[in-house]
Write a structure and sequence with these properties.
Distance between the termini: 25 Å
Helix content: 25-40%
Shape: globular
Bound molecules: N-(5'-phosphopyridoxyl)-D-alanine
CATH superfamily of the largest domain: D-amino Acid Aminotransferase, subunit A, domain 2
Number of helices: 8
Number of domains: 2
Structural class: alpha+beta
Largest sheet: 9 strands, mixed
Number of strands: 13
C-alpha cells in the first residue's frame, strides 16, 4: 500500500479516501502463472488508459509497476495467483465532488490465490441469464464503481446462473465480469471494442490465438437474438480464462455440452498461458 508491504489485515485507507466516498478509482486484475504475470504489458497499457480517462496521474512508470509486482508476487510465495491493483484519487480533508488540485493517488495491490480450472465447469459448462445492461456509457474504463455489475451478478445468482450476459439497444455488450463470444457454424464472433465494453486482456489473447491458428473469427455487433441461435457461447476473464456457457435463460446452448470450437480454443489458449510473458 503506497509503497509499503504489510499484512493484508493491517492495510487501512482513511474514510475520506475518494475510492471509498465516490468509487473514484480504477483497478486491474492480473493473473499470475508460476510467478509470472500474464500479458503484463497489456494490463499496464489498459491501466494507463483508465487512469488518463479519469484524470489521475499514473503513480509509476512501467518499470516501477513491474518492480512492485515482482516483489509483491515474491512475498506472496509466487506460483499461481491473482494480483489485484487499485489506484484511487486519494484522501483529502474534505468530501468534495470537485477534483483536488494536488492529486495524491492511493495505490493498493494484493495477491489472492487463484483457484485452478474447475473440472466441473469444463465438463458441463456454466449457466447464464440475459439481462439489460444497466451500466454507464464508459465501460471501457476499468472503474471500481461496480455497483451495477454487483447487482447484475446477484440477479444472475438468484436465477441460479453463474453470469449475466448484458444487452444494450438490442446488442450483446459483455458479461457482468467477463467478455462474451458466440459461435455459429464454426465462426467465432465477439462484440467490437467500444466504450460499451471493457477491452478484456483474455478477449484479446483469444482473438490473437484464433487468428494465429486460422480459426474463423470476427469482431462485430452481435444482435441479442443471435444468443438463442448460437451453437456455442463462451465467456472470458483473467480469473476464469475461457469457459463455456451451456445453458442460457434455462435453455441448452447448442447440444447443452461444451462445444468443439471451445475445446480447441481452450487448448490453444492453454498453450499461450504456458508461455512465459
Ligand atoms: N473482470 N468485462 C468486465 C465487465 C470485467 O469485469 C472483466 C474482468 C472482463 C474481462 O477482462 P479481462 O480478460 O482483462 O480480465 C470484461 C475482472 C476479472 C474482475 O473484475 O474481477
Amino acid at each position: 500500500m503506497n509503497g509499503t508491504f504489510l499484512p493484508l489485515a493491517e492495510a487501512r485507507v482513511p474514510v475520506t479516501d475518494r475510492g471509498l466516498l465516490f468509487g473514484d478509482a480504477v483497478y486491474e486484475v492480473i493473473p499470475v502463472y508460476r510467478g509470472n504475470p500474464f500479458r503484463l504489458d497489456a494490463h499496464l497499457r489498459r491501466l494507463a488508459r483508465s487512469l488518463a480517462a479519469i484524470r489521475i496521474p499514473n503513480p509509476h512508470d512501467d518499470a516501477g509497476w513491474r518492480a512492485l509486482f515482482r516483489e509483491l508476487i515474491e512475498r506472496n510465495g509466487g506460483g499461481d495467483l491473482s494480483l489485484y491493483l487499485q489506484v484511487t484519487r486519494g484522501a483529502y480533508p474534505r468530501r468534495d465532488h470537485r477534483l483536488p488540485p494536488d492529486p495524491r493517488p492511493t495505490v493498493i495491490a494484493f495477491c489472492q490465490s487463484r483457484p485452478g480450472a474447475d473440472p466441473d465447469t469444463f465438463e458441463s459448462g456454466v449457466s447464464a441469464v440475459v439481462q439489460p445492461d444497466i451500466r454507464w456509457a464508459r465501460c471501457e474504463i476499468k472503474s471500481t464503481a461496480l455497483l451495477p455489475n454487483v447487482l447484475l451478478a446477484a440477479e444472475a445468482h438468484d436465477a441460479g446462473a453463474n453470469e449475466a450476459i448484458l444487452v444494450r439497444d438490442g446488442h450483446v455488450t459483455e458479461g457482468s465480469s467477463s467478455n462474451v463470444f458466440v459461435v455459429r457454424d464454426g465462426t467465432v464472433a465477439t462484440p467490437p471494442l467500444a466504450p460499451s465494453i471493457l477491452a478484456g486482456i483474455t478477449r484479446e489473447a483469444v482473438l490473437e490465438v484464433a487468428r494465429a491458428h486460422a480459426v474463423p473469427c470476427a469482431e462485430r455487433d452481435i444482435a441479442a437474438d443471435e444468443l438463442a441461435a448460437a451453437d456455442e457461447i463462451w465467456l472470458t476473464s483473467s480469473t476464469r480464462e475461457i469457459y463455456p456457457v451451456t445453458t442460457l435463460d434455462g435453455v441448452p446452448v447448442g447440444d447443452g455440452r461444451p462445444g468443439p470450437v471451445w475445446t480447441r480454443m481452450r487448448a490453444l489458449l492453454q498453450a499461450d498461458l504456458d508461455e512465459p510473458d
